[in-house]
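Repro:
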Amino acid sequence: MPASIRFDLWYFNTPEMDALIEHEGAIAAQGAMLQLFRYLRLCHNAIGNRRSLSKIARDSNCSEEWLWNIVTSYGLFIVEDDESFFSPYLSGLLHAASKSSSSRTGRHAQKRARAPYNEDNHHKEDNDDKKENKEKGGKVSDVIGPSAYETIDRAGLRHGHRGEPVPWWASPQTDIRCVWSLCRDCWTTPDSINPKAERQQRQQMTDRDFMMKTAWETLSEDKQQSIQDHGRRI
C-alpha cells in the first residue's frame, strides 16, 4: 500500500462533488469524503462495505445513514448488490501510486548502468522521442491517461464518459460534459462533433491507438512519468 497519495484538486470541482457540497456544505461534504477515502485505502483492493460504516460514523460524529446516502446518491462511488462499494477515482490513485513506486524501484536498480550525461545524446533522445510519438499518432500532453470519468473496457481500449473512443495520448477528461474528438484531437463539446467524420477517422486508426499499454511501450522512461490511469475497468 502506498505510504501517501495525492488528491487532484479538479476532483473536488466535479459536478458530482458540487452536488454533494450544495446539499451538505463544503466542510461536511469534503470531510466525509476524506473519512471514506481513509477507510477505503485500508481495505483490500480499496473495496469497502456498508457494515463498516457504523464505526466511521461513530468516529466522525455523524450517522451511518448519512454516510451511506453520500456513498449511494451522488455518483461518487460504485455500489454493488451486496452493498460493497469503491471509488473509481481513489482506486485509480492507488493503482497509479503503486505503479509509480515500482517504477522508481526499478530505476534505482538500473541507475549505475546508465551512460554518463552527454548533451548531444540528450538532444538526440528528445528528438527521437518526438519522432516516435508523432509516428504513433498524435501530440502527447503533459499529463495523459484516463481520469475517473473515463473507462477501460475488457479489450484495454480507453473510452470517455459518454463511451466515445479516446486515444492513449489524450489528456485526462476533467469535464463530464465534454467528449473527445478524433478529428480535432482534443476534448470539446458534443454539439461541435461531426459523427460521420469521427467514424471515418476511427476507421483510419488501430486499436493500439486507444490502449494505455501502447503509451508504456511507446514513451521513454522519463516521459512515462506523465502517464496516469484512474479509469474504471468495465
